[in-house]
Specification:
The chain is an alpha+beta fold. The protein is built from one helix and seven strands; from the N terminus they run H-E-E-E-E-E-E-E. A hairpin with a 5-residue loop joins strand 3 and strand 4. The protein is rod-shaped.
Length: 117
């Protein structure tokens, strides 16, 4: 076996090892996302039945619901939550688009005296 053959064999082993690691990385990242989503779901479950306890995370989510509308979370499913916005109706909204009213300060840019935050 020549030096070139040895280097090519080592290169093939390295490429195979890199591929195995990248597959494991993808699986780990997928699982991390699943765990993060489940934690958010559990957090929202504490808000079930709290009057005006949730808001929509993003402004302009739907023109029929005002950006500052607060609703009561009635039910939490695997991926969606049923929210009663009172006069604006009952909606089934993806859990990742909901935020508890207590966390609403983290909803985007707000203008404060002294600059943006």
């Amino acid at each position: 076996m020549t030096a070139r053959d040895k280097l090519e064999a080592e290169l093939a082993k390295l490429r195979a090892r890199i591929e195995r690691r990248s597959e494991q990385d993808r699986a780990d990242r997928r699982r991390e996302g699943q765990i993060r989503d489940e934690l958010w779901r559990l957090h929202l479950m504490t808000m079930i039945g709290v009057a005006d306890g949730v808001m929509i995370r993003y402004r302009g989510w739907d023109r029929r619901i005002p950006d500052d509308a607060r609703g009561t979370l009635k039910k939490v499913g695997r991926t969606r939550g049923d929210v009663d916005f009172g006069a604006h109706g009952k909606w089934s909204i993806p859990l990742l688009d909901l935020i508890s009213f207590a966390d609403a300060d983290n909803r985007g840019l707000t203008l404060r005296i002294g600059g943006l935050s």
